[in-house]
Each structure stands twice: as structure tokens, then as C-alpha cells.
Hints:
The complex is a heterodimer.
Chain A: E1 2-8, H1 19-27, E2 36-40, H2 41-47, E3 51-52, H3 61-66, H4 79-89, H5 91-106, H6 112-117, E4 138-139, H7 145-156, E5 159-165, E6 171-176, H8 182-188, E7 203-208
Parallel strand pairs in A: 2-5
Antiparallel strand pairs in A: 1-7, 2-7, 3-4, 5-6
Chain B: E1 7-18, E2 24-32, E3 37-43, E4 46-52, E5 54-56, E6 61-64, E7 70-79, E8 82-89, E9 95-100, E10 105-112, H1 114-120, E11 124-129, H2 146-163, E12 167-170, H3 180-189, E13 194-201, E14 211-215, H4 220-237, E15 241-246, E16 258-265, H5 269-275, H6 278-299
Parallel strand pairs in B: 1-5, 11-12, 11-13, 13-16, 14-15
Antiparallel strand pairs in B: 1-2, 2-10, 3-4, 4-8, 6-7, 7-8, 9-10, 14-16
Helix pairs in contact in B: 2-6, 4-6
Zinc ion (ZN) binds at residues 130-131, 137, 146, 199 of chain B.
Amino acid sequence: MILGKIPIRTHIITEKDDMIDVVKKYAGDVAEPGDIIAVAESVVAITQGRAILPETVKPGLLARFLCLFPGKDGSLATPQAMQLAIRESGSPRVLLGAVAAAFGRIIGRRGDFYRVAGRHLAQIDDIAGTMWPFERHIILGPKDPHKIVRRIKIVTGVDAVITDVNDIKKVDIIAASGGVDQESLIKDLADNPFGNDDQQTPIVILKMALNTTD
Amino acid sequence: MSSRKQSRITNIWSKVIKDGSGNICTKVVVEATSAFEYRVSRRGNDVILKAAGVAANMPEGTIEVNDGLVRKVSLIQTSAGEAVFEIHPEHPCEYRVEAAEGIPFRTAIILNWAFLIKMFKGKKLVIDPGHGGDDWGGKGPVSLIEKNVVLLIARAVEDLFGQVGIQTVATRAADENISADSRFELAKNEKADLFIGIHTYSDNNSKVGGAAVRYKPSCKDSLLVAGMIKEELIQKLKVADRGLKESRELAVPGEIPGVEVEVVTITNWVEEGLLRSPTIHKKAAEGIFNGVRKYFANIGGH
Ligand SMILES: [Zn+2]
């Protein structure tokens, strides 16, 4: 049973930060065993140097061509973001994804691009104008998210998840430590307690009632 | 030394709200792990809240708000267990404090916009989303078209002004052909206090980016409001400053001041990306709103 959600404001997180240290510093005195520490995936990626300045990406012909096709929920709309998707998954897979999406469209099915080209590509955040000072960056998905939640659990003794939550009530659990009930967590995060700018409160602590057995 | 006894300050946020009686207010909320004691005092417009039995879990320092009434909020841990919150409004305002039990424990400082609402009373603006119909305006390197994005930004601008009781009249609400003359004439017919065109800039070099404001020559107030809008817009959008430019085509009749805001540069591929985000439309609108508010406050004396 959830008692409340505490958004945790931190300093501006950059690639110089270590995510485990950040969680220990800001959540260590607030979260207790039984709670869940939720961390925004984009901020984890930033600490891993996976926020990329589009100026440093040279989009090839394929990226320029593919980004012209809409229907990817606004993601991968710039040729630079598409180029990074190609770098992550390889051009054959991205191309196959695009073909699958085209067929999917004909039969009115959505989501085929990411199903074929790689679900991790859905975690790429195209230039969004939020997350200062990374508002002009393309932010890739986090690397080794499962390892990070395990380390948070070891260091703090509290269960942890890495999530992608947006303001249209879409919640993705990217990684969770063992003791997390993911289904009820998705409901608890649907109101996006992170707010629209992950940089301000990149951590949310879900306070749980102790001794519940349901 | 148990930190468990102290309430930990975890977050500060703010929002413009309508209170129970329908008055516009800024609500500044301090979130903490439990209740704490505080004393509130006033220093000029500033509201100062001294708290005891607290520890700053969040970083100390200043949070920019810039919502129209409140410029910024700051938190300083003055000694072990004591902290000071300072709220800096830009205009006179009344305030009240409300505390709400819960997890987190919330202490809200609610600041009334009555001064601004009075200042805005009777003001009317013409908002002109540039281009339309056969005139596409600029085009982004991927797919965006100026005539479409400026319409979205103009709507966000109208929403903000409408919320504080400023009347807005738009030159177009759809994708239609409208002559330059009839756009400017509308300002005269409506006896508007100000004409604001919404545009994006276009450049042959896709690396050029930033915001600028064009203004009607032969009118000192146009230059004044242009400067204020540009400053506040850049504060919100954090894009490059392309300066203020005189525009002879901006032929708003009579004494009515006129400006055209080039919100960002659509031909820059990063800024085209920014233009896809509703957050950016909203931030651009807030920047324009803040500039106009400063202008009305500035000319308010006469
Ligand atoms: Zn234009």
C-alpha cells in the first residue's frame, strides 16, 4: 500500500555525477526499507554521458530519409536522433523496423517500428527543450539499467526502479530490483510525480506502509 | 544527532492557480518529510519564511520562477536545524500560508495577483500568427512549416493573456490567406494597446539560431516593449540573442505600438526540433507574456 510520493529535488545532474552517489546523497535520509526509489531514465543516461549534442552527429542518407515518416510519437523526428538510433541498433534492423512500420500502418497496427528495430530505441528522447542544460541534446536510453537498480538496492537497502514516465500517463519500467510489484507501481506513477522536467526532481520516493500482506 | 526528528526539505515548486474565490495566485509549495515550525515576515515585496527543526535535503540556492508575479524563490540553511525561504515577487501582493498534512508534508505560500489584474484591466492585444494559406513562411530542414507552428504558439499566448483578463483578438485562427494590411488594420479597428506578430526566423545557414524581435519604427513604445519581450523570451527559451531590428513593413496605424517576435530560427535543425515540443510553445508564450507585463508596468504611470 502506497502512503505517498515524495519528489526529490537534486542539483543539476551531469555526466560528472555517479547515479548511485546521487541516490545515496538525496534519498538516503528519506527512503526506508519497504519503500521504492524511482529514478528517471533520462537522468541515468545523462550520468552515463549518453546525452548527445546533435551538432556532433552527422546524419547519413538513411537517417535523413527515415525521419521524414511521422507516426513515431514525435520521437526520432530529427535526422540526428534517427542517426543515433541507427548507431544503437544497426542500419539493417532500423530499416527492417521502418518496413514493418509501413506494413503495420496498412493494417492499422501501431508500434511495429520499435518492436522490430529495438524497444530500447523508444527510450531515445529527441530534442525536447526541457532538462536544462541538456535541452538541446538528444538523450539515449540508459545503459545497464538492471545493474544500476541492483547497486542502488545494495547501497541503500531500498528497492529501486528506473522508469520512463511522461505527462500522457505512459509509464515504462525499464528496470526494477527484485522486491518491486511492477503492476501496482505503474498505477502509482501514472500521475507523473517527476513533473515535466526530469532535471528538477529526477528521483521520486514511494513511501509504502509497512507490514502489508496482500 | 538523529536526523529522523528533523523534517527534511525535499522540494520546492510553484504554479499559477485560481483560488477558491476565482482569484489568480502564485502558489509556492515547500515539500518536506514532516511538519515543521515557521515564522513569516515581509521585507518590501519579499515574503520570508523562517523554519525551525528542518534540514535541507535539496540543494540550497535559488530557483527561477518567472511566472509573471514571482521572479524567484531561494532556500538557505542558516544553521543546523534552521532554514530560510525567500520569495521574491516583482509586484506588490498579499499572501497567505497554508499547511497540509500528508506525505510529503506541504507548506504553501499563496501570493495574490490582484495588483497585476488591476493593471491589466481594459487592455487589449492583437495577436498575429504570421503567414497562412498560400504563404508558408519559413520551412524547417525536416518538415515543420512556419505558418503552422506560429499558430500553436499564438494559441498559447492567447491562453496566458486570457487567464489574467487581457482581451486578445487574433488575426487568424486557421490556415488562411490574410493580407498584411488587414492584419494591421485590425489593431486600429479594435483600438488595441499593442500588436504582437508571432514568427520564426529563417536563414540560409542552418547553423544560425536564436530569437529576435522586430519593431515598428517611429514609435518609442515599440522599441521599449520589443526589448522587454526579447529579454524575457531568451530568459525562458535559453536560445541565442539575435537582437532587436527595426521593421519598416510593420505598418501598424497611428500610435499603436507593434512588434513581431521571431521566437526561434526554424531553419536551424536543433531549433526546428524545439518547435515540435508543446513545452517550448508554452515557454515562448510565457516569455512574451512577461515582456508585455513589464511594458504595461513601465508605462502604467501615464
Ligand atoms: Zn514569418
